Amino acid sequence: MTGDAPAGDPVEVLHGAADALVDAGSSKARTSLEMATGGTRVTIRGKGVYDYRKRLGRLKVLLPQDPAGDAERRPIIELLAPGALFMKNRGAGVPADKWVRVDTGTLSDGNLVTGGATDPFAAAEVLRGTREATFVGRTEVAGAPVRHYRGTADLAEAARDASDANRGPLAAAAKGFAATEVPFDAYLDDQGRIRKVRHRFSFVNGERGKPVAVASTTLLYDFGAPADVRLPEEEDIYAGRIAEGRAGE
Hints:
This protein is of the alpha+beta class. The protein has five helices and eleven strands; from the N terminus they run H-H-E-E-E-E-E-E-H-E-E-H-H-E-E-E.
C-alpha cells in the first residue's frame, strides 16, 4: 500500500519508537511467537499489560495444545521486570503456587524467545539498532491509521543504545543468536508509537546445532490503560532446580 511519506528519515523515526512508548506510559499488549520444532510449526500466544516507564509487564501466555490431546495446558503467567522474568505454572516440577525467577541477562536470547513471548519494550528497543529501513506505505492496524516500515536491525547496536534494563539482555541475544541482524516490519501511529512489530529471529538449537527461525509479533493498543504489576515476594519464589528449555519446546 502506498501513501504519503512521513516526515523524517525512517531509520531515525524507528530509533525513537521506544521513547514514544515511554511517553505513552502504558498499554495493553498481545504477543505471538511462531517457531518450527520437531517438524511442526507451533504458535504461542500471550495477552496482558505493560508499563513502559517502570519497565514492568504482565502476560498470560498460552502454550499450544498437547499433540496427544491428553491434558489441557494451564496458561503460564509471566511478570516482566528489569533484568528478570518471573513465571507461574511453569511446570518442570515447580509447585503450582510458586514463581520461577530467571535472570534475563544470562539467557542466550535475552528473553526475546525463552518465555514464549517477547518483552514488549525489548521488542521496541530492538528497533534502536535499525541500520536500514524503508517506508512501505500507509495502512491500518486494528482500526488505527499507521505507517508501515520494513528494515533490518542489529542486536549489538540495539544493546549499545538500549535502556539500562535491556542493555544486558540484548547484548546476550547479540552473542547467542545465529545472526545479529533482525529483519522486521514495524507499524507506527501518528504519535510514533508502535502499534505492531514483527521480528524474525534466528537462534541455534542446542541439541541439533541448526538455526531455528522464530517470528515474533507484538501488538500494542489501549495506550494509557492501567498496568498495575506487582512482583512476587521472596518466599513465593521457587528455589529448586527446574528443567531447562524454551516455552513450547
